Description:
Layout: E1 4-8, E2 14-18, H1 26-33, H2 46-51, H3 56-67, E3 71-75, E4 83-87, H4 90-99, H5 107-113, H6 126-140, H7 143-171
Amino acid sequence: MGAAKAKRSKNGKVEAVLEYTPIGNKAWYFKNKSQALTHWPFLGTLPSLLWYSKRWPERSTEIYFSIGCGSFILNGPVFSKLRYLVTCHCQNLEYILKTNFSNFPKGPDFGEVFDILGVGILNVDGSSWRLQRRMGHTVLSTSEFRNLVAKESRKMVNDQLVPFLTHVAREGTLIDL
């Protein structure tokens, strides 16, 4: 990408001078500027992430639409371990979270960050995860649980949502649901 040439300084030392660095190279910049997510040399996508940090959900949707698929890679700086696959594609999500879960372990770093959650389904891998998922599925699929959720939802709608909407209608106020 860049060309280097040797130059002799005043004190006789030879210094390498980069004539065209990737960041300074205008052709490189304009070529990569048109991409959905700019991959900077040495810094990866970190500058782009920081630039759009205040509106990341909207920006990620723009990226999904501009690249025409539901997945893209986020690279961190060159010597870091940061490399993430970001996806909203339904088949990818099913493959990662259900079909082939064992190929995507969370790893020790994840456990350290989310240590406060303990050893629940969100923090474990392998057979422990499978056992907890099976137990959770059993509880969530019972008719008692479904009846409880329906009863509480109905109560919340009748006690909170209907009075609120009645008040809004009486006042003639516009709201954004």
